[in-house]
Amino acid sequence: MSGKSQLIENDHAMSTLDFGTMEFMKWLMEVETGSKECLIIVKDFFENKYVILFDKNISSSVIVCYRESMPWCITCDTDDCGHVGFAICLKQHYDRNDQIIC
């Protein structure tokens, strides 16, 4: 496959940045309400270095690292999967609130 790993195919839940953004919104609501509907769990966040997520859809941890301030999903080997979209939103949330809730 060109551009993306076989892990992230078009029918995969985290195949686009937009899916990651939508999952981040679900995660925010989950933090507030305590529901368990989100496909992503934040395991660790180290500002401007990496974020470790758990993707329930693939039952695996996912690492998104920052290369020269640009996010890169090591697991998917791309910069435009849903994990990256989630990580971008998470960083913006952290920057605005100066703290993270896991």
Q: Could you walk me through the main structural features you see in this protein, from its secondary elements to its overall organization?
A:
32% of the residues lie in helices and 25% in strands. The chain has helices spanning 17-33, 82-97, and strands at 40-46, 50-55, 60-67, 70-73. It starts with 16 loop residues before the first helix and ends in a 5-residue tail after the last helix. The model is unreliable at 1-8 (pLDDT under 50).
Main attributes of the structure:
32% helix; 25% strand; 2 helices; 102 residues; 4-stranded antiparallel sheet; 4 strands
Radius of gyration computed on alpha carbons? 13 Å
Kindly report how far apart the N and C termini lie.
34 Å
Low-confidence stretches: 1-8
Identify the overall geometry: globular
* Helix/strand/pairing category: alpha+beta
Percent in strands: 15-25%
Q: How helical, in percent, are the residues? A: 25-40%
What does the largest sheet look like?
A: 4 strands, antiparallel
Q: What is the residue-averaged pLDDT?
A: 83
How many beta-strand segments?
A: 4
How many separate helices? 2
Order of the strands making up the biggest sheet: 1-2-3-4
- The helix/strand order is HEEEEH
